Amino acid sequence: MARAGAALVRLPRLALHGRVVSAGSVSFTIEGLAPWTRLGTRLLLEGAAGEALPGEVVALRDGLATALAFAPLEGIGIGAAAHLAPPAMLAVEESWLGRVLDPLGRPLDGHGPLRPGPLPRSLRTPPPAAGTRARLGPRLDLGVRALDAFATCRRGQRLGLFAASGVGKSTLMAMLAAGAACDVVVLGLVGERGRELREFLEDDLGPEGLARAVTVCATSDSPALMRREAAYAAMTVAEHFAAAGAQVLLLMDSVTRFAMALREIGLAAGEPPATRGYTPGVFAELPRLLERAGPREEGNAGSITGLFTVLVEGDDHDEPVADAVRGILDGHVVLDRKIGEAGRYPAIDVLRSLSRTVPGCLGPEERRLMLRARRILALQAEMSDLVRLGAYRAGTDPAVDEAIRLGPRIEAMLAQAKAERGTVDSAFAALAAALEPSHAGGAA
């Protein structure tokens, strides 16, 4: 028996592999592995120079597996071998703070390899069960007056930042990363311009902000799988720190590019295009990602406060991705190009921005101030054309006169330099000062 056991040990282990039977610009088809694969199974594809190219199965039909790669497919030919690979995992560790990595856990900052943690985490995990999930925590200082006063956020809340390109979205994210009251910041940069990565980290975020942040980046030239995986990897890193009891701020830029990557993958897998070319799988996957943010299970003090940017194409805030994301999240913040063109930054349109948790985190006096300021700004916007044309005569309507006097003071209070920091209390103190009658009379 001993000799038989020794002989069995010396036998070569069973190795499953298939071969490529067709390849395109983004996908390839493998035969021989379909019975042992599932959707999402990881593969290693042998390149022409012997390198291992990671991929993932995205469709199964007629005994063949369709897969996409995490890198360009140049050099892959018919007959190339494909092997099964371990599932997607990230072994997050505390030493990752201050580091920049790609979605596969490889360093991008040139500071050496990342030390793995003892417990690898799957990139695909379900959100906490709704019945055992903790409630939202106390209000959170975001450090931006316009948000703290008009879209007050609570720990574990999820907000969407809706903006067209070039409206100051990246600068606002840097202000949040540097000024929010949290323990850890996780940045998920999905499809960002490669040129802007170092500028954002070194100039906007700075050494102090970078020291408490983990950045996961897949640039715009990355394959669709890498861009999609960047969102999952950032969420997995955030879940690791939240499970340890930390207050995590997750900033993801952008959900739209994540949806675009899902659309590319779905089309390559044979899904039919639906709304504006987006496949049905996109709208099934969005809540699976976004619902993972928020409070943890009851008894765990950690939480993930998520701010997810949405690129609105052509300033259309009702396009499919924006509409779907707005229905999933706990509020939305709108950045308006006209406000930025007028020179007020951050260019947040407070009248179109909303936090659904405001009733649970504002006191009676704070709520009164916020509602009064909203009414004044709304009336000022309504009467602006008449005032500009000289069609309104002062003294005709006291409410309009008040809006003309106080509106500019509120706008001045909303303006904030990138280096300024604040709290919810200081934001409401500034709003109260802007609404004081004595100040209004002096301004008049």
UniProtKB/TrEMBL annotation:
Its main location: cytoplasm. Pfam families: ATP-synt_ab, T3SS_ATPase_C. CDD domains: ATPase_flagellum-secretory_path_III. Residues 115-129 have a biased composition (Pro residues). This is Flagellar protein export ATPase FliI. It is found in: Cytoplasm. NCBIfam families: fliI_yscN. Residues 155-340 form the AAA+ ATPase domain. The lineage of its organism: Bacteria, Pseudomonadati, Pseudomonadota, Alphaproteobacteria, Acetobacterales. GO terms for molecular function: ATP binding; ATP hydrolysis activity; protein-exporting ATPase activity; proton-transporting ATP synthase activity, rotational mechanism. Keywords: ATP-binding, Cell projection, Cilium, Cytoplasm, Flagellum, Nucleotide-binding, Protein transport, Translocase, Transport. It comes from Roseicella aquatilis. GO terms for biological process: protein secretion by the type III secretion system. It catalyses: ATP + H2O + cellular proteinSide 1 = ADP + phosphate + cellular proteinSide 2. One of its GO terms (cellular component) is cytoplasm.
